[in-house]
Each structure stands twice: as structure tokens, then as C-alpha cells.
Design brief:
With 292 residues, the chain is α/β, with parallel strands linked by helices. It folds into two domains: 131 residues, Quinolinate phosphoribosyl transferase, N-terminal domain (Aldehyde Oxidoreductase, domain 3); 145 residues, Aldolase class I (TIM Barrel, Alpha-Beta Barrel), CATH 3.20.20.70. It is 41% helix and 18% strand. The chain has eleven helices and twelve strands. A six-stranded parallel sheet has the order 6-11-10-9-8-7. Strands 3-5-1-12 form a four-stranded antiparallel sheet, with helices on one face. A two-stranded antiparallel sheet has the order 2-4. α8 links the parallel β8 and β9. The longest helix has 30 residues. It is elongated, with a radius of gyration of 23 Å.
Length: 292
């Protein structure tokens, strides 16, 4: 059973996988149909080729089962687990045709998700020992794959920022320009936003931080500030609002930022600049064929 907090619901996984299968298999598989007999059986072994953090297992499983519901999958590791190079993530057994036809889609999802989870884990582990500062994602996600990548961030030990434009108020620089300033933007947001929604405002200097606090913001995003300015912002704030550091966040900066007292560090690179994890799917033939 896959941890629902570290994955996505089955119906969401299946919808995404169906779209990918339509793209890859919608017109058939001329190679597999020509080369592989219907009764041939196979064993597909997904193996990590580098150290990684697991994510996306529910998508890989959905790919095999949507192509051939009779495929049997044995899972060796769960989403969120650290895996060493050479370890198996899962083994799929069944008709060779189905395994071959689902292989690429399963790997595409699995490699992308594991890449995000692994990157997130690096940022989480880079915090100072004992730090409670959250490492969060942003909305800089691959179109159509936000649910997958946000689940991967959770699997890597990170947290999610707002999911979409309707889920929270985040007043950014262009909103401030359009509204005529920080104070009118915050006051209008407070008048119209649900009472359950916090008001977050982005600022790029300490004067903006003061204005946002005085106007009633509950979270302030410190945009593209260096470590020294962030430290000044924390001192100026005196714990009145939650502070989030964002913009230009490299892995090397995380340790220092996590000691300064910010509530969260949001990192677009968790989803927009990751490499796919190196995972192979090795194929073997079992001792006996399966029923056609």
C-alpha cells in the first residue's frame, strides 16, 4: 500500500497515465506486435542506477496495469524511501507485450518524480541541524504534472506552497503595481478574501516589509534578498508575521538561511530545474510462458 500523503490518488494517477499512454501507444506498437508472441511472458525489474529518493510508484504501477490488468507488481520500496544505486524499486511480471508497451510511460513518470524527490531531499538535508524551517515548492511546475511533482516534494521531505491561484492570497510585485501600492493591495485582499485565508505579500526591501506588516499581512515573502538583508528582516519583524525567503535560493544558501529564523524557504528549482533520476528497467524471460 502506497502512503497517500506521499503519492497522488489512484484516479488522478490513472488519468495522467491514460493521457501519456494515448500519446505513446494510441496508434499501436508496431515493434512489439511484430517481434513478440502473444503468449510470451516477461519480468521487468526497475532498478536505481544512482542513489535516489523514491516517488511516483503509483504512476508506474498504473501504466502497467492499464496496459495489461493481469500484470503482477512486487514493490520493494515505498515513496519517500532512500534507495542506493543497484537496488530494485519494483518487479513487474506478466505478458511481455504489455510490459514492453508500458515501459517508457512508467519510466518517464518514475524518473521525473524521483528526480524531484531526490532534489528536495538535498535541500531539506542542507538545513542546519534541528532547524524547523520548511523547504517548500512553488507553482513553477511542469504543466499538467503539478500533482505529481508536489507529491514528489512531499516524498523528499519538503512542503507544498499554494496549489493554485484559488488556494491562497499571494500578492506579488505586479499585483502591487496594479493595485497602486502594498497597503491598498493588502487592504483590498483582506476585504474580499475568505476569513480562512491568510494574506501573503511579496516585498523586495525592508521598507516594503515594514509597510506590509503595518497593513496587516500575515505572511511576507522576502524576494531575492541576500542573507544579510534576510537577517535584518527577521530582526525588524520581531516574530509578528511569518517570513518566507524566496528567489535566488541555491543549495549552498540553505544552511545559513535556515539559521536566521525564517518560517519557509521556497525553491522553484525543486521542480523547474531537476534532472530525471537514472532508473533502468531490465527485462528477463521467465521459465514458462503465460496464458495468451
Amino acid at each position: 500500500m502506497i502512503d497517500s500523503q506521499l503519492g497522488i490518488p489512484q484516479f488522478v494517477a490513472e488519468q495522467l497515465v491514460r493521457m501519456a499512454l494515448l500519446e505513446d501507444l494510441g496508434a499501436g506498437d508496431v515493434t512489439t506486435d511484430a517481434c513478440v508472441l502473444p503468449e510470451a511472458a516477461g519480468v521487468a525489474r526497475a532498478q536505481a542506477r544512482t542513489d535516489l529518493v523514491v516517488s511516483g510508484l503509483e504512476l508506474a504501477q498504473a501504466a502497467f496495469r492499464l496496459v495489461d490488468p493481469s500484470v503482477q507488481i512486487e514493490v520493494m520500496h515505498q515513496n519517500g524511501e532512500r534507495v542506493r544505486a543497484g537496488e530494485d524499486l519494483f518487479v513487474a511480471r506478466g505478458r511481455a507485450r504489455g510490459l514492453l508497451q508500458a515501459e517508457r510511460v512508467a519510466l518517464n513518470f518514475l524518473q521525473r518524480a524521483c528526480g524531484v524527490a531526490t532534489m528536495t531531499r538535498l535541500y531539506v538535508d542542507a538545513r542546519a541541524p534541528g532547524s524547523q524551517t520548511r523547504i517548500t515548492d512553488t507553482r513553477k511546475t511542469t504543466p499538467g504534472l503539478r500533482a505529481v511533482e508536489r507529491a514528489a516534494v512531499r516524498a523528499g521531505g519538503g512542503h507544498n506552497h499554494r496549489n493554485d491561484l484559488s488556494s491562497a492570497v499571494l500578492i506579488k510585485d505586479n499585483h502591487i503595481v496594479a493595485a497602486g501600492g502594498i497597503r491598498p493591495a493588502i487592504e483590498r485582499a483582506r476585504a474580499l478574501a475568505p476569513h480562512t485565508s491568510r494574506i501573503e505579500c511579496e516585498v523586495d526591501d525592508l521598507a516594503g516589509l515594514r509597510e506590509a506588516i503595518e497593513a496587516g499581512a500575515e505572511i511576507v515573502l522576502l524576494d531575492n534578498m541576500n542573507d544579510e538583508t534576510v537577517a535584518e528582516a527577521v530582526f525588524l519583524n520581531q516574530g509578528r508575521v511569518l517570513l518566507e525567503a524566496s528567489g535566488g535560493i541555491t543549495l549552498e544558501r540553505v544552511f545559513a538561511l535556515s539559521t536566521l529564523g525564517v518560517y519557509a524557504i521556497s525553491v522553484g528549482a525543486l521542480t523547474h530545474s531537476v534532472y530525471a533520476a537514472d532508473i533502468g528497467l531490465d527485462f528477463d524471460l521467465p521459465a514458462s510462458p503465460v496464458d495468451a
